[in-house]
Amino acid sequence: MLSRTAENLFWIGRYLERAETKARLLEVGARTALLPNIGGGYRNEWESILSASGTAGAFAEKYGDVVQRNVESHMFFDGDNPSSVASCITAARENGRIVRTALTGQVWDALNSAYQELKELQRTERSALPLPDITEWTMRTTALVRGAIAASQLRNDGYRFMHLGFALERADSTARLLDVKYYVLLPEVSYVGSGLDNYQWMTLLRSLSSYRAFSWAYGGEITAAKIADFLILNPQCPRSLLTCVSSAADQLDSLARSYGNSTEAQSYVRGLLGEFAEARVEEIFDEGLHEFLSRFIENIASLSGVIHRSYLTGRPV
Amino acid sequence: MGEARYFNEMETGGAVRAPYRGLEGWSREMPAGLRSLKQSEAEALFRRIGITFAVYGEGGDPDRLIPFDMFPRVFSADEWRKLERGIKQRARALNAFLCDVYGRGEIVRAGRVPASLVYQNEAFEKAVCGVRPPRNVYSHIVGIDLVRTGPDEFFVLEDNCRTPSGVSYMLENREIMMRMFPALFQENRIAPVEQYPRALKRTLSSVAPKKCEGEPNVVILTPGHFNSAYYEHTFLADMMGVELVEGQDLFVDGDFVWMKTTEGPRKVDVIYRRIDDAFLDPLCFRPDSMLGVPGLMNVYRSGGVALASAPGAGVADDKAIYTFVPEMVRFYLGEEPILQNVPTWQCAKPDECRYVLEHLAELVVKEVHGSGGYGMLVGPKSSESQIAAFRAKIEEDPANYIAQPTLALSTCPTFVDEGIAPRHVDLRPYCLVGQDIELVPGGLTRVALVEGSLVVNSSQGGGVKDTWVMAE
After folding, report:
1. Residues whose CB falls within 8 Å of the CB of residue B116, separated by 6 or more in sequence, listed in order
2. Core vs surface per residue B141-171: b (16+ CB within 10 A) or e
């Protein structure tokens, strides 16, 4: 397949996953805003939502006041923000349009309808668009595209590149989200058992749509070690770092098989995966959660670079 | 206006003509509610498929749809047989002409076409003189724009030898009609057009260069997704099962052109290019072109890759050369032309120019190199000030203009707000030239949706129709 086509497919995966992450963050922010603060008044989680999405600086410049309406504009509608839901959906559809021939009719239909609906939303009076409507719309839309991909795309190299995009973006977003909240998970004596950390843990799980899943998997009290284990090392959790890395490894293995040729990308992802197989939560805490996550985010960026070198430049492998 | 002046393809003298009989009941009995329902269904289908058309320089919605009119345009098998012979004849003559002018130039030596019109033509490509493309074919897809003025009167309005667009509309209009009105297709025997992409692939494969061994690797070269015809490029690539590439995906190494793939470089044998000559190769043509492939022309000249259409093909569809196409038919084929040209005045010639300037109000004046309905004057539809402004332009650069009589374009029934009314139509069939010459029974019918308008270009508010050829 053309290297450029593979790259576009890869980015369709990344943009869709990114749109979903942003919508989920918005949902958490709105939910938190409804809960009373311990110290009186209402909590303002919007700041941490913005820093989790990595766009706090750009937001401050354009909007100033950190209030829900502004955050909504910024994270959902704003075309100037390259990672807003609107920008991501538009970019995913544009990438799809460029590689129209590599997509099934069903997938293109889902992508294109998403874009047409988005235009409709952008034309709608904002007062007629409560936040839950737009976040649910985003989740539903990305689920539709994913479903169309699962149901109709050939399991060929293009499919693999799309899923590499999903996997790397998701790995990156889980790691960043954890990193923003890492201090909550650190076993600091003063916080343990206080209402504050419990509450923040729940927020973290919710932002990954994993609250119920966590309860099913672990039960009992929420502890820092359990949460870190769930989101980093649990192979059952669909958003854990391990799940994402092993999905990337699976995709790369399939590519090596169908091309009859292994590249440095396969070796690199194997190395990453090997590290996870040995890891224990205690060791991660020993290294320092923040240090571990920073290293992980760098590794994912390197993996992305290696994939690019191996497949997307079109030079002899 | 006096519609009686125009040939109505559905009815003459109050009687429904044979090819349209299958549509009489259908159109009469369709309730207005159903009609608007179907119309919006069609529009939704087009939008969902993603067929849209961006108009250069107009801004606005880049995803504008070309209006689709559901009333089909119909030809009988007999009418088509004659058209087919005429179109194929013309496609053969145009290719013979191209081969000749880039070779010995016999037609010029014989004094049948003026040397200056050929060799000083902007579209004449010195870079390919003496190059023989595979099977001596320069123009592999010839789009011939036809208009009709009576039961047997067809005229060629212009030839398109480079990369005529619009064929995806021919195919998608049919798909949508079949989806919305399956009964019509059961009751009428309508020749299919869906074989076009396979025929195109066959044509392109048949012109692979001699150096190509085995199954040729055919690709479509597009300027990119900002191009107004990008949908068509993806559609054709998809239907033919070939890669759609941009200049950045190709590179030249040694004697061949390669495309960058996830498995390393892969050799390319035939490039169906949808970019203009000037952008093909920055080393040979425009140095600022980002769309082309540096070194491509060297590979082409040494027979490492085939280009469709071949660079330089544009000299045959130039509006000044057009006048001589009947002469080409006689000169190369020894036949009488089956399709007639529209009488044309060349403003380059002083006496003809004088006639044109005296009769501007009756004539259609076009730029020699223009296309898309831009920069033209439709005399009878223009105000005195518009005519005066155009007169000044002609006087400034007469050689840039030709003029033709305002033709009484035939009309076809069309759905309009008030019901069904006649609107003027033209026809662009797509003739394929490779090892064989093939013509799919159908084409793109464009319709001027504005009452009385004779301009059918989609950039000027024209629409499209499904075009039926009745099977024998």
Report:
1. none
2. bbbbbbbbeeeeebbbbbbbbbbbbbbbbbb
Q: Is B259's Cβ below 8 Å from some Cβ in A? A: yes
Residue pair B344/B323 in contact by the 8 Å Cβ criterion: yes
In a domain, B284, yes or no: no
Residues of chain B found within 8 Å of residue A312, distances taken between Cβ atoms = 262
How far is C-alpha B34 from the geometric centre of its chain's CA atoms? 33
Enumerate the residues of chain A whose CB falls inside 8 A of the CB of residue B250: none
Asked if A123 and A101 count as a contact pair (C-beta separation under 8 A), the reply is: no
- Residue-wise DSSP of A131-175: HHHHHHHHHHHHHHHHHHHHHHS-SSHHHHHHHHHHHHHHHHHHH
pLDDT 10s digits, A186-229: 545 444 445 556 676 777 787 777 888 888 888 777 777 888 89
Measure CA B226 to chain center. 21
Which residue among B225, B235, B265 sits closest to A316, beta carbon to beta carbon?
B265
Q: Can you tell me the ipTM of this complex? A: 0.78
**Does pTM surpass 0.95?**
no
Chain Cα centroid distance, residue B296: 26
Q: For chain B, how many structural domains are there in total?
A: 2
Q: Could you tell me the residue range of the domain that residue B113 belongs to?
A: 10-125+141-191+317-340+411-469
Same domain, B49 and B116: yes
Residue B325 shares a structural domain with residue B379:
no
In chain A, whose CA is at the least distance from the CA of B61?
A119
Residue type, B437: I
User: Chain B: nearest CA to A126, how far in angstroms?
Assistant: 22
Query: Is the CB of B249 less than 8 angstroms away from the CB of A315?
Result: no
> What residue segments make up the domains of chain A, in order of their start?
1-153, 155-317
Taking all residues of chain B, what is their mean pLDDT, rounded to a whole number? 90
Residue B262 resides in a domain: no
Q: Look up residue B58 and give its two tokens.
A: 């107009």
Backbone angles phi, psi at B54, to 5 degrees: -90, 135
Beta bridge partners of A73: none
* Structural tokens at position B454: 């004779």
List alpha helices for A279-316, DSSP H. Answer: 281-287, 289-307
Going from the C-alpha of A254 to that of each of A159, A250, B151, the distances in angstroms are: 10, 6, 62
